[in-house]
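user:
I keep going back and forth on a fold encoding question. Separate attempts, laid side by side, tell us more than any discussion would. Would you put together a sequence-and-structure record for a protein of your own picking? Write it directly below this note and I will take it from there.

assistant:
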Amino acid sequence: MPSKRKTVNDFFQPTNKYAKLLTDESPQRACKAGQFIGETARIEKPSVPGLLLYTDFVNHTEEEDILAFLNDPKLCTWRTDLSRRTMHFGGTYCVMPPKNINATSTKPVVLQAPPMPQELGWVIQRMVDAEIFENGQRPQYCIVNEYTGNLGISAHTENFQFGEPVVGLSLSSPGNIRFHELVATFDGSVRSGKAAQAQKTGRVVDVHLPPRSLLVMNGPSRWSWQHEIVRSAKGRGAGWKRISLTFRYKPRSCPGPQLNKASTAP
């Protein structure tokens, strides 16, 4: 298990925060006390306001450790009532009735998810150390999605009961996430069908997600852009599998959309 990181400078070089990583096109070696983190660790700024992509946020060994934990049936249980496998930590979640059952007569079942596991605690601490989350804003919720074949998820924004940032860690195979700019902020879920009612400007941005990268949504990218994983096997190839861990923080009272928040790295 990786040791606790103290500051962002412990695992990113050079030590002047992230300014170098945002402007230097050469790969940056990241390390702490000689421990290898990633030869190409850097921060990228896609053309979606408020969006940052941290490449190689975890290394190969750490990625394998997380996947081994998620796939250990003694420690974790995959939810299989959807087309893709999912897993929840923290809070509650709904299990929908099978599609062959009349939904008007069968209500969703609300289940209690297990708490955030200690096996993911070091990932959260690294995000806090990197000032992605403030120390008092440790994410309490995580949803894990497994995408294979042509599986995806419809365009949506994260529920407005959660604050910002919303953070996604990508593991295993590379993939893409598509962002849709909205005319205005819109809090509608995929499950309710309301997400599809959001008015879009027509501007679309595709962002490539390398394995072991961390996507951070703040400001407009979190509140006024929907994101989706397109349902298509194109370019994925045989055996393609992407695991996504989405971390969310729920404040005591959500301040609502913060569209003017700076989109630069800390």
User: Anything to note?
Assistant: The radius of gyration is 18 Å. Confidence is low (pLDDT under 50) at residues 2-37, 262-266. Residues 1 and 229 are 31 Å apart (CA to CA).
